[in-house]
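Justification of computing resources. Each target in the renewal requires a structure prediction run like the one illustrated here; the chain below, 89 residues long, is used simply to show the kind of job we budget for.
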Amino acid sequence: MDALDNADGREIVAYHWHPDGRGHVRLPHLHLGAGAMVGRGERVKAHLLTGVVTPAVALLLAIESFGVPPRRADWGARLHQAHDTLQPA
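Resulting structure tokens:
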């Protein structure tokens, strides 16, 4: 997952990382989309630095903050374990 959309298909957050220099911001960052309803254009275009975000962290955000229903009863333990495994050294 690189983005989380609302029920209307509007992007809430998007995680980007362009270490190859494809953009002017080469560090991991996120963007707040129109679905975040921040109301200010510069915030939608802002590159909010995050550090490395594993897929597990993005899924935790979706479940814990945006009410996406988990598919497993042990989702919390599994996602924390996956995050720990994927964390860069």
